Automatic annotation (TrEMBL):
Pfam families, A to Z: MTS (PF05175)
Family (UniProt): Belongs to the methyltransferase superfamily. PrmA family.
Name used for this protein in its record: Methyltransferase-like protein 5
PROSITE patterns per UniProt: N6_MTASE
Residue span(s) of domain Methyltransferase small: 46-146
Chain's gene name: LOC106746808
Gene Ontology molecular-function annotations: nucleic acid binding; rRNA (adenine-N6-)-methyltransferase activity
InterPro entries reported in the protein's UniProt record: DNA_methylase_N6_adenine_CS, rRNA_MeTrfase/Polyamine_Synth, SAM-dependent_MTases_sf, Small_mtfrase_dom
Length: 211
């Protein structure tokens, strides 16, 4: 069972500060409280992968997934984030709601897994989708996540890449299962966006690692 009800979790996550000036090269889009709460609540209520577990959040941004995991009773949470501005927002969110999670500023694709290989029960993430100049970055995030986790990885990926994502995970000795099909409401955050928002079809996938 989850420590909070789904509605409570979403309400708490809605209170967190998010990016004011997202950086296009990092594909910074805040994970919505709605999506984050459903991801984490599912991970706990259906698979018991959060409460009492060690959890890593890759590309943790403003800390929505990290702090949500802590709210659901995770024993130990570490957010890994490359951007110093995002780290500052994440840290401020921790202070505001009086919850502590570890925050490590680093380039996960250069610094991990290292000593963290296999050290986390569960990895959660909303990786860059690999658009613009970052083709393939989503798969590099996934490879890193699988190497960090001794149990399961929860991640979001564009539905149009589903077959490739599941195939690549199998090559990495992880079994991927699409838990839900979502519509990611991507708000207009950058100058090149012509529409107020765009719905992207996204898969919420659980990867079983069992190391």
């Amino acid at each position: 069972m989850a420590a909070l009800r789904l509605r409570q979790l979403e309400e708490y996550l809605q209170q967190l500060e998010v990016f004011e000036k997202p950086k296009v090269l990092l594909e910074q889009y805040a994970t919505s409280a709605h999506i984050a709460s459903h991801m984490l609540y599912t991970a706990q209520s259906q698979f018991n992968d959060i409460e009492g577990k060690s959890v890593a959040d890759l590309g943790s941004g403003c800390g929505v997934l990290s702090l949500g995991a802590k709210m659901l009773g995770a024993g130990y949470v570490v957010g890994f984030e490359i951007d110093s501005d995002a780290v500052d927002i994440h840290s401020g969110n921790c202070d505001d709601i009086e919850l502590h999670v570890e925050i490590v500023q680093c380039d996960i694709l250069q610094c991990l897994p290292g000593k963290f290989e296999g050290r986390f029960d569960t990895v959660v993430m909303n990786p860059p989708f690999g658009t613009k100049r970052n083709a393939g970055v989503d798969m590099r995030f996934l490879e890193t996540a699988i190497r960090l986790s001794g149990n399961a990885v929860y991640s979001l990926h564009k539905s149009s890449t589903r077959d490739y994502v599941l195939s690549r995970a199998a090559q990495l000795d992880a079994k991927g299962t699409v838990v839900a099909e979502l519509r990611y409401d991507l708000p207009r955050a950058y100058r090149f966006h012509r529409k107020a928002s765009v719905d992207i079809e996204v898969d919420f996938i659980r990867f079983e690692t069992n190391r």
